[in-house]
């Protein structure tokens, strides 16, 4: 794959500063750039690399003005990070060669009642159950299971090993990575007088709206009744647990190893850091930002607020408290000494 700086600029609706005819064949990080590679500069703390990189072409912002001489050609765009991500996606499609695949590989099983759209690819060892509907241009890679009565939109990609339980509803442009499970039973058990637990049937489903991406080894439980919702535009990392009847708001991002307990609702455009734990039956306001390893056990009603710590507290409070943490041993010694002095004076 070879492109000129001019072709890249035209594709990204940018402008070229330098040699329009210079060609690139690979993508790279700016600090590892070499001749024939394309990279980008978005975060200005990496600006020093643009003066030493051997990359042929660098994507930069419209307002970038070099402070020193550079040897690379610049492609100026409005948002270099987003522009480079578009190129990464196209490059990935070429490498994986999935975008052009169609048809049904064998061995696989597609139930006669299933409805398969145009230009769909179904990989080997995949099982498509009864009354499944799969929209046009969707790619179902190897060893995927799609349960009965599930509805899959257009332009989706399910990577190898994805398991989708029955009656799941998945919108358009959804990407689900390997070994993720959609629609497994919610964790519902009723305690009995003899100390045992009786399973509560989970008769709901999972609804994933348009343009959601879900990482590998994530589990999203079906609702006890009704639906577990992942609203449009949300991005979920690897190794996340989302319990029954949870609702993830539009354009929310959740990092790895987070756990969201049953029936909690997260507002749109929220950010949930890695290893965050959210208790059940809670409501988190729009734009809530939760730092890594925080624990949430209360409703959050104020929008666009940052929370850290366990139990969580507003960011400024947590920062003040964290400054004191390292001084606690010394404070304890001072208090112990003062107590001893007071006791000695009282006894004298």
UniProtKB/TrEMBL annotation:
Residues in UDP-3-O-[3-hydroxymyristoyl] glucosamine N-acyltransferase non-repeat region domain copies: 22-89
Catalytic activity: a UDP-3-O-[(3R)-3-hydroxyacyl]-alpha-D-glucosamine + a (3R)-hydroxyacyl-[ACP] = a UDP-2-N,3-O-bis[(3R)-3-hydroxyacyl]-alpha-D-glucosamine + holo-[ACP] + H(+)
Residues spanning the signal sequence: none
EC number of the protein: 2.3.1.191
One Gene Ontology cellular component: membrane
Native species: Pedobacter cryoconitis
Keywords from the UniProt entry: Acyltransferase, Lipid A biosynthesis, Lipid biosynthesis, Lipid metabolism, Repeat, Transferase
Pathway annotation: Bacterial outer membrane biogenesis; LPS lipid A biosynthesis
Homology family: Belongs to the transferase hexapeptide repeat family. LpxD subfamily.
Subunit structure: Homotrimer.
Protein's recorded name: UDP-3-O-acylglucosamine N-acyltransferase
Ubl conjugation keyword on record: no
């Amino acid at each position: 794959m070879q492109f000129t700086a001019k072709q890249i600029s035209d594709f990204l609706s940018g402008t070229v500063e330098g040699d329009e005819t210079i060609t690139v064949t690979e993508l790279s990080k700016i600090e590892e750039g070499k001749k024939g590679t394309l990279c980008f500069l978005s975060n200005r703390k990496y600006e020093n690399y643009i003066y030493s990189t051997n990359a042929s072409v660098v994507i930069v912002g419209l307002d970038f003005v070099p402070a020193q001489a550079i040897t690379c050609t610049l492609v100026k765009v409005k948002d270099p990070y987003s522009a480079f991500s578009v190129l990464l996606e196209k490059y990935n499609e070429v490498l994986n060669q999935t975008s052009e695949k169609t048809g049904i590989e064998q061995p696989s099983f597609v139930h006669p009642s299933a409805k398969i759209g145009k230009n769909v690819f179904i990989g080997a060892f995949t099982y498509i159950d009864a009354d499944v509907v799969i929209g046009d241009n969707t790619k179902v890679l190897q060893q995927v299971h799609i349960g009965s009565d599930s509805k899959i939109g257009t332009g989706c990609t399910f990577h190898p090993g994805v398991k989708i339980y029955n009656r799941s509803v998945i919108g358009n442009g959804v990407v689900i990575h390997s070994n993720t499970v959609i629609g497994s039973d919610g964790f519902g058990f009723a305690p009995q007088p003899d100390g045992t637990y009786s399973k509560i049937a989970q008769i709901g489903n999972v609804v994933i709206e348009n343009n959601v991406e879900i990482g590998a080894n994530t589990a999203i439980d079906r609702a006890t009744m009704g639906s577990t919702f992942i609203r449009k535009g949300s991005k979920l990392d690897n190794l996340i647990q989302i319990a029954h009847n949870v609702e993830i708001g539009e354009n929310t991002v959740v990092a790895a190893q987070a756990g969201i307990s049953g029936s909690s609702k997260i507002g749109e455009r929220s950010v949930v850091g890695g290893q965050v734990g959210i208790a059940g039956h809670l409501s988190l306001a729009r734009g809530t930002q939760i730092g890594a390893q925080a624990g949430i056990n209360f409703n959050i009603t104020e929008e666009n607020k940052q929370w850290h710590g366990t139990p969580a507290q507003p960011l400024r409070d947590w920062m003040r408290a964290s400054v004191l943490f390292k001084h606690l041993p010394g404070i304890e010694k001072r208090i112990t000494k003062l107590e001893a002095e007071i006791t000695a004076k009282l006894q004298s």
